[in-house]
Amino acid sequence: MKSGEDRRNSRSRSSGRNAKNTRSKNSRSRSDSKGRRRNNRDKRRDIDAENGENIRKNKRANPYIIMVTYAFVLLFLGMIAYLSYFMIFQSKEKINNPYNTRYTILNKRIIKGSIKSADGKRLAYTKEDMDGNIERIYPYKNMYAHVVGREKNTMTGIEKAYCYPLLTSDINPLTKLVNDFKGVKNPGDNVITTLNHKLQKVAYEALGNNRGAVVAIEPSTGKILAMVSKPDYDPNTVDKNWDSLVKADDDSSALLNRATQGQYPPGSTFKVLTAIEYLIENSSTYAEYNYNCKGTANFGEDADMKCYGSEVHGNVNLAKSLAESCNCSFANIGLNIDMDRLVTLAERFGFNKGLMADYEYKSSKISVTSKSSTAEKIETAIGQGKTLVTPLQNAMVAATIANKGVMMKPYLVDSIVNDNGTVVKQYKEKKNGKVISESVSEEIGQYMCQVTDYGTARSLSSLPYKVAGKTGTAEYDSKGSSHAWFIGYAPYKNPKIAISIVVESSGTGSQYAVPIAQSMFSAYIN
Amino acid sequence: MSNVLMQVFKGVIIVSFLIYTLQCFTVLLASEEKKIKIYKQQVGTIFFIQLMTFSVLYTNTKEIGVLIIYVFQIILLVFISEAYRFVYKDLSRELLNNVLMFIMIGLVVLTRIDIKYAIKQMVYIGIISLVCLFVPLIIEKFKYFNKLGIIYAAIGIGLLGLVFVIGKEHYGAKNWIQIGGFEMQPSEFVKIIYVFFLSALLEKDVTFKRVFKVSILAAIHVLILVAQKDLGSALLFFITYLFIVFVASGNFGYLFGGLSMGAVAAMVSYKLFSHVRIRVLAWKDPWSHIESEGYQVCQSLFAIGTGGWFGLGFTGGAPNYIPVVESDFIFSCISEEFGAFFAICLIIIEISCFVMFINVALKIRRRFFKLTALGLAVEYIFQVFLTVGGAIKFIPSTGVTLPLISYGGSSVISTFVLFSIIQGMYVLDKADRKKIEEELVKREVEVGDEEW
Q: Does B27 touch chain A (CB under 8 A)?
């Protein structure tokens, strides 16, 4: 019966049949005269004799075929959605990769944008001469060599991280089209950094001919205000001087950005973290802390400690221990705190884990445990031992204390603007997390003020506002050679800037690092 | 000059291609007269895009060879278009147009990547298009297609097994054989016989016993491919088997049972084979392994991403940065130069082809052909899925070609045969219908006479 009706449908409508159609047609065929239908049915059965059964089976297959079709169409819609997602949200970030060498193609079509300081100075720009030759110019030569980076001899710094945004032109599409017609290159977008030229210049000059690094950060936002590393090089001529820069027997490593990748023993600047751990573990009794310093002390076999120059500090509380940077007292503190928890604290500040910065940097390292030897524990507590820290990490420690215990993500680029100055992308400050409580940060901040009041950085007391700081003198070999450190922030009441300075192979922090801090604070805070 | 041309044509190409894509769907609703008009417009678009791309290519290279090859490509397209419309009576014009479009795009891009690829590809297409003119005849005259189930399986397994005897390794997969000076990939040809085998054996009998027997034979195919490290084909064969069994039996148990068994097999092969793990690794996080395993996928994404929505313009990109761009990653090259928008339109045209295949499967009256049409449709669209998905990192890359567009003799020949068989079945079914209709009308007249 059914096969007969189906046959009829196929006659009246040769295409696009499905189950629904068949049903709707049934009623119409029923309206035919009964006798005629019976007659027809017999005849049709003859025709379909050989494959009538087949056709019925066939019909049954169709709904499943339609299901298969839907399944594949859905799969493809998913794939198209994925591709669109990639294009809209991921592609700009993903193509900005040194392995994507298509920038050479873009360079032929777009004049690479400029990199500018927050106060509008051009730090890098592209010049095109009459013949169409392009050249990347760095007007301040060595001053921004590491942070802005270079284009030649493998890209580095902002040049590398923002290569594709600089080679993207977000001007009016119509203007772009007109330029294409005229055969004129379109202007690329400009990258506006968070760097403050005035501060960078002061830091650069203050570091003088020393090796070392300076990092300055705005504590409330994480904006990097200045980043200097020495020795340096001129990115304009780096290709010509390349051989001498990479010479193996030269240990100056001028190409290395010490600010983000130089790993130094932290010296006494680490006492800030040791003190914070003591404050946290002894939240009700820390005010009663007292230690009698005799200049040297013995904490057991192979665990001797000595203050700088064997100076006898006498009776010290926690604040004074920090202000005078008393090694013996901090060794004692180190044995009174849980080393595992100290590591956890340091990791919250970014040690071992990283700072979530968007540019290349090395993580700082700390590896002590509660099962370590007494000698290693007391060494770690005063910032010697196996601990290694980058200037950027130390700047983040100071900035976090200044920002009431909240660590911001350090960042270098404020915005991307098109050639007309319209903002294409605005980068916003981001919290890395709450590292220590507000009360702990306030307490440690007060101690750091005493460092500049009467302690190892007292020369800063001449400034018209209070400064919180900590010096460090990090010995790195048995001969007593040391790196000079200073970390700190100012003004204490309303911190605008946090600084970390390291001067390699110089001497004490008080003598070599503090004066640089002083000129930077003076230059930045009016 | 060439730069200006490239930029201007970039927009024109995208717009014309978009119109073509839309027409693939509007034509389904159009009246008969309008359909003819749309088909003509579509053919016009194909030659228009070809003209634009070759103008850019010529102003860029100023090589006379480009012009010569352009003329040959026109001749090839005109030949296929005319000959097929003549031999395949009442063929599906939308399908024919899509074939022409794919061949045009493929040849244009190959000419741009390396003219040698284009020349070889043209020879393959020329020969196979001649051979395939006999497909309708064979389908019509040869009545025992559906009776050769086991023989198909034997041929398929034999051909695949041949690789173990006289095989060659390419890109880590040992799935090529060399005969004389020609290298070919047997799996590409077995692909089609394999669908015949499944359809023939499941045509009438879908008892558990029969399905079990078919499963064993299909598993042998798949396992040989796995052993040759040809994961893409193995997956393709498996999925095709699964869906033919599902449609033939109407049993969801087979579908889901098969899928879960496939998942288990995938897990096992992940554990067992390092080359599987490498592919998965390169898919999960190509960026961390950009120097080694992830290089190809990253370069593909760079191409697509740098191209953006509207492309760098034809000849404006750098497709040669992607290894094996001419076959497995041609989609990335198209997306880079013509833009992601164009590439998505291309995917949509591929879907429209699939829907037309399915349409043939739905309409066709003989069950063997119904299953064959479905099997070929699944095979076609799943291959597109594997290659496009691999290029955009939607799935791990499995090293299969984009049908009719990628370079590769075996691939283009087998896809051409696939399209021809579908066309042949379409034509046959139309003829069948006509015959029955005539017969019915005749009988009806007789019936009517009796009643009078």
A: no
